[in-house]
Specification:
The protein is an alpha/beta fold. The chain is built from 13 helices and 11 strands. The chain is globular.
Amino acid sequence: MNTPKGLAGLTIRAIEATLVVVPMRRALGTSAMRITEAPLLLMDLLTEEGIIGRAYLFCYLPAAGKAAMALLQDANALLAGKDASPAEVRRLLEARFRLLGARGIVSMLMAGIDIACWDALAISANLPLARLLGAPLRSVQAYNSNGLGLLDAPAAADEARELVAEGFRAIKMRLGRASAQEDLAAVRAVRAAIADDIVLMSDFNQRLTPNEARERCMSLDGEGLYWIEEPVAHDDYAASSGLAALLRTPIQIGENFAGPRAMAHALSQRASDFVMPDLERIGGVTGWMAAAALADAARVEFSSHLFHEVSSHLMAATPTAHWLEYVDWADAILQEPLKVVDGCITPPDRPGNGLVWDAAAVKRFRSQP
């Protein structure tokens, strides 16, 4: 996606980063690992014109955040004095990291810089990011994705009621317990604990082999799940496509799309009913908008993964926008966390993407070298 006309002219002075580790209000228990704290890499793109563009990355592990900071030093030396146009910045970074490969932590870092560039451009234009992208500040339906890990059935039911009480009309639970019977019992307990009009999503976090997935997903078909997310390895499009054709319950994938080309391949294989790209893996704002165009052409509903602060702007500009995933992990270090109103989130009506750090909180949660 090219920079809008008239917005060139910002010059990068430096990119600063701070790694914070924020305790989660609700632990996230998945079939892959249990996460109790969120390592967030806060990025500030400083310009010669005095405008600061901001972004943050969720690093999963503190060590990954430290590796990203080391790579940022290299990117910083490359970009200092260069135009802050996202297209030009991407061209320079792709050339710099060509031999290393723009994958994993490298691609995450590039996405973060892209997000910060777009934030700076929107601030310079005195527009919220959504409006810079040509969209109104419309509300997007959101689901509560905090907690609801691999708890036993009674505990899952209790937590489901708590998540709904936080103002949501949709929640997500994790699957992938030791047996299909345990998963089924948990789903039935949660479904019975919440009202019939509350939407219930589910996520296996790539837990199952194709054979296991057929058995487990068929046992859950018709149990009131809105979607079944990533039942098999994220890039096993053949198995995922087979499940999508077999089940009445929609299959959802996409948080692991490594850029728009991966999503294009998945769409060509009819690997899922819905897609849900992740902002830091799809390529930042630039990658997201390319992916949104692909979903629009394929007429596939498009949801978000994490980063609801920025993703809410992008969902407003996404033709097939579906559901916004909400987690509160960054709230502790933000001056103005977004609020949920009637189960929806609206992008803030202020210039940029709305991210402003709470300096005292950043100091409190800063990771030590």
